[in-house]
Amino acid sequence: MTVRYDRETDTLVVIFRDGPVVESDEGRPGVILDYDASGNLVSLELLNASQCVENPSTVNVAVMG
Q1: pTM over 0.70
Q2: Of 32 and 54, the one with more pLDDT
């Protein structure tokens, strides 16, 4: 999984898997979900991230189990 934040565009992208995106859906305003040919979620894009995420340039990871 890869997380990228672009300060210039204020966009946060979480990439769950590599592969081509064949469909994108804006589930809610400013939240774009990208899917592969099998319908699997490839990535999530959050527009205006600084308004939705406390500190989009910092990522904390917790692995459970």
Answers
A1: yes
A2: 32
